[in-house]
Amino acid sequence: MARDATEQLNQPETTTSFSSPAFPPPPASSPALGCRPMANTYKIKIAARLRPPIPGELVDDGVQVEHRDDGTSSISVPNPRDLTQVFKFPFTSCYDPAAGQEEIFENDVRPLIDIVYNGVTVTVFAYGVTSSGKTHTMQGSRSEPGIIPRAVEALFDRQSGLRRYRSELAVSYMEIYKDEVYDLLVNRDNAPKLPVRENDRGQVFVANLSAIPIDSMAEFERIYSQASKNRSVASTNLNRASSRSHAILTVTVTLTDPTENKTLSGKLNLVDLAGSENNKMTGNDPSRMAESSAINKSLSTLGQVVHALNKGHSRIPYRNSKLTRLLQDALGGSSVGLLICNLAPGTKFRQDTLNTLNFAVHTKNVENKPVVNEKDNKPIPKPHFAAPPPPPPKLVAAVLPLPSSSSHGGRPSLVSVPPSRSSSSSSSSSSRVPRPSVGGFGMSSRLSQLMQPPPPPQAKTYTLTDKEIDERIARAVEAEVARRLAEHAIERAREEEVRREEEVALRLAEELAKRDVKRKGKAPVPQHESLPSGTLTPLMRREEDVSGDEFKKRLEELEQKFEHSSREVQMVDVLSPVSRKRTGRAYVSLARTHSEKGNLQLALELYRKAETYVPDNIKLKERIIEIEWAVKNGRALEPSPKRPKKSKSRKTKDSKHSSQTSITSEESARPSLKGESTHTSLHDAHATVGDPSTSSRQEVAVFSGSFSGLLPLSPPKPARSASPSLPLSPTRATRPTSASATSTPTSHCPKTAASLAATNASELKEKENVRLDLTSDAEDDEGLVHVGSPPKRAIDEMQGDVRETPPRHKKAAKVAPVDETDAGDGPWEQWQPFELGKRR
Ligand SMILES: Nc1ncnc2c1ncn2[C@@H]1O[C@H](COP(=O)(O)OP(=O)(O)OP(=O)(O)O)[C@@H](O)[C@H]1O
């Protein structure tokens, strides 16, 4: 029988910080009831898995897994912009194409089973581009069962070892399809959209999601195979059974200790994310495009959440998508996390692979604080005196310190209580002791007041008449209504202020653009060949001295105002995307001025400020890293790398100049890449050059740390940019960076006056409608790293190795078709359940 999974979440439950990062398994005779808080943090563990080529795919060594003798392993990917460089990503677990399902499960997932039996929530999620093998890893096939069936089987194995304790397993399964949540355990045709809610302990849950108790593996298989058929799957050019939704399977383990009267509740969330998609490669039709857009958007939000956690932002944008809301606990929350990065082989996926690994590098710095979910089932102590039970409505409890014998026992509440909370409050009549509310307006605190033993002598004083009680209730209601109205008024005033400030910021940015246009109209842009190589050329070169200060002052005022009006509401959080972009642009403009004046420290601060408004702008990140390096080493700012406009000459130039390429470092001067081996500490990255194993190749190893400038964190931008009429689209978002932030390419392309003149305010406005990059194409030329518009070569690279890329109009035909006859194993729904204990 299905029961509502929210039931459990709404029960009062204590959560205590989990003590041991090692999570020792509890002895069979004594489950983890003794586990006590010690507030340890626990970083998300990363495993990377490279799948083998599937039939029809070109085989090359675009991505490689390296295992070293000391037991460490890493993934190597050549830099798409400079093939002589290799990026290395070391992770605790790296699996090559030969690795089997069992190996991954035994190494990385089985140890988590005991953690679940400690009453902790564990989340395992598979992340990667479409067709990289996420579903294969999580679900698997009949002959190669994946993590999901193996984990459930391991949970049953573990359960059978328990003697003294009662334990129950229940399963829920949902999908997030186009940012709506559906229950996969109910028939697809009748499945309603389910709301995502938060209970009074801040736990996010899906209301009305079924949770089916399971007693055996066979029962689970029956349910799971049926539910898998409900999942949204479709065929694309890259995957004949591509998941169109994120799927989250949750197994809840409830352990009850009858003697102690306590319950531990551990959870295992197994998440098969949908893969980020490049619509050019997938050949999506309009309906697939809409799905793809939703997928990319939610994954982009996931990237933003990880980015914000890494940067220690005060506001983490969990609420921007259902996916991140539901994964909130796994990302910077109270669960233990394992991220499996699935990688597809070959140069065709190289940029996607780099994006995935970049996401992993960011994620491995995210810290969680696991907690043990423990419930005390002791019966609620009853008041000594013979009085009718306390009236349920919370206002009555709030007004009357103690129930009077003459009080109206069943008086209905005058203030409506949301259903989820009602069900929570109704637990007061159950055997569970409500957890004291943490300073909220929760029912629990009221109930705990009621639970206080009455002071005996004063008991006589509670002889209120009905009229007095009514009066008190009326007063309380009035007070409560007034409080809420005041809250709303404040909220409205705040929104109004935000709106006004947004308008001001908008006007500022518009003014900036107008001046720029005006200036260009009056004075022709100087020949850039005459500029010192690499000097940033600001849009407002001549007027910056004055306007720069003005704008800076204005922007600072704005920010101060926001800081004062509310600590929690940051300006960046409340501006619209367009305003954010404009504000960011204003900061960049100022920063350029100061950078040109040689005031790098101030320029750096301004660039960083700009970054808070446009956190995904890669060129900006690169610029920050360059200036950081220059400031740290007391050097003048080195020339910004330029790309030649003609793609055909690029490769020659790249290779020609590669020997002069240098890698940035905060602590050391830029090392030459010729035959040296230098460790750098720029965001914990280091560069190793001349590794004998790679002979002539340069290697850039990327360790933990913010690593913010190297590669785009977010997956391709979705939606509107995916429209065929908007050619800018997802390619821009995944455009490869110049020889990356850790290196300084040396090919230069002088900017032309024509490229600058191409930009005007109206163009800018148009472009704003289709993308949110900080700068326009011409501004690219003008400002930071890339030169040339459109970046055709970069687009080509993103589609695959330029060597393999045909002319663009033929690209679709060049995408390796997936062999429809690829027999493999059938998907899960075609399985015959395998027997408990039987593994391949
Ligand atoms: N390790 C592996 N060994 C053998 N085949 C694999 C492996 N990983 C993936 N595959 C095969 O590659 C194809 C794509 O895999 P899968 O459907 O799991 O990708 P996905 O990342 O879930 O894609 P999507 O995001 O589009 O759903 C499937 O045919 C699958 O059987």
TrEMBL record:
GO cellular component, one term: microtubule associated complex
Binding of ATP, residues: G128, V129, T130, S131, S132, G133, K134, T135
Biased composition annotated in UniProt, kind: Basic and acidic residues: 368-379, 793-807
Region named Disordered: 1-34, 368-466, 637-699, 711-840
UniProtKB keywords: ATP-binding, Microtubule, Motor protein, Nucleotide-binding, TPR repeat
Keyword hit for Nucleotide-binding: yes
Family: Belongs to the TRAFAC class myosin-kinesin ATPase superfamily. Kinesin family.
Annotated protein name in UniProt: Kinesin-like protein
